[in-house]
Design goal:
This protein has a single domain (26-172), classed as Vaccinia Virus protein VP39 (Rossmann fold, 3-Layer(aba) Sandwich). 29% of the residues lie in helices and 27% in strands. The protein is built from 5 helices and 7 strands. It has helices at residues 26-40, 54-61, 74-83, 98-104, 122-132, and strands at 44-47, 66-71, 91-95, 109-114, 136-146, 156-163, 166-172. Helix 5 links the parallel strand 4 (109-114) and strand 5 (136-146). Helix 4 (98-104) packs parallel to helix 5. The termini are far apart.
Length: 173
């Protein structure tokens, strides 16, 4: 796993060994970042179920202003910190439950990555809180990665793509 584009292109990332995570494959990440490239420059980003932090770090490498990396797994937080060398001034790495974070954060985001464990209903729960608390800036996007239960939201679907069983939907406010 590595950063595939931008300022830190080629930087190797740790993360395949974290129980319960499935890092986004490079080809999927490359396609995804091609779809959202026009939204990244100077963006405030939230990578809610961070795992290794690969999506948030890729956003920083491509010009995002700041990224919040949230995970409640202590091993994931350690890996994110290991992966964040040279990024520290642009990152907020927070070890907490996603619902607690979404219910207490007093900030709006331009890009939100939602890639929770596939067998949970956390995707739709997170979307509901994001909409209810108005955490997405106007013109901002939410990227949902899932396998089974499709995201349910009032946001406008602007792009979708399938990679075998894995699906990505991008919604805009």
């Amino acid at each position: 796993m590595r950063i595939i584009s931008g300022k830190y292109k080629g930087k190797k990332l740790k993360g395949f060994t974290i129980d319960g995570t499935r890092p986004t494959m490079d080809r999927v990440k490359e396609s995804l970042f091609g779809m959202i490239q026009n939204y990244i420059k100077d963006a405030t980003v939230l990578d809610l179920f961070s795992g290794s932090g690969a999506l948030g770090l890729e956003a920083i490498s491509n010009g995002a202003k700041i990224c919040y990396l949230i995970d409640n797994n202590p091993e994931a937080i350690k890996i994110i910190k290991d992966n964040s060398t040279n990024f520290e001034e642009k990152l907020h790495i927070i070890s907490t439950d996603y619902k607690k974070f979404l219910k207490t954060i007093e900030k709006k985001f331009d890009i939100i990555f939602l890639d929770p464990p596939y067998q949970s209903n956390q995707l739709n729960t997170a979307l509901k809180i994001i909409e209810k608390r108005d955490l997405l800036n106007k013109g901002g996007i939410v990227i949902c990665e899932y396998e089974q239960a499709a995201p349910e939201t009032n946001l406008k679907l602007i792009k979708e793509k399938s990679y075998g069983a894995k699906k990505i939907k991008i919604f805009e406010k």
